[in-house]
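Reminder to self: tokens first, then the designed residues, so the page reads top to bottom the way the pipeline ran.
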């Protein structure tokens, strides 16, 4: 499994920005995609953004155009740049990794998870 540690969460007013970081142990060719997920109380966890090893990105409809997922060339850090934050973005955000041949669109393919970082957006 890949070790993942999130940071960068915090409290911000609506319309503000935050950047989350996901530091992960080098994984060579064993990871096919990294994803950011979020979960708020009483709601199911949802995928927010995914990046594949070739740099292809996917976003949920609710964050497209506001959030950007990226990764460094060494593949040791991934980021989630969040702009124009809304109160409904309030959640615990998790970084997760799926295997090389995984279906990046399936949450159950993500076998390595970080502990999460809290994002709170006040209106």
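Designed residues (123 positions):
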């Amino acid at each position: 499994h890949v070790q993942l540690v999130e940071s960068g969460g915090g409290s911000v007013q609506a319309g503000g920005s935050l950047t989350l970081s996901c530091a992960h142990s080098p994984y060579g060719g064993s990871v096919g995609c990294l994803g950011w997920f979020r979960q708020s109380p009483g709601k199911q966890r949802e995928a927010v953004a995914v990046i594949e090893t070739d740099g292809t990105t996917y976003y949920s409809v609710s964050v497209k155009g506001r959030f950007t997922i990226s990764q460094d060339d060494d593949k040791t850090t991934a980021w989630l740049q969040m702009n124009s934050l809304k109160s409904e973005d309030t959640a615990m955000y998790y970084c997760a990794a799926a295997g090389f041949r995984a279906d990046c669109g399936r949450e159950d393919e993500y076998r390595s998870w970080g502990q999460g970082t809290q994002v709170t957006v006040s209106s």
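The two ends are 38 Å apart (CA to CA).
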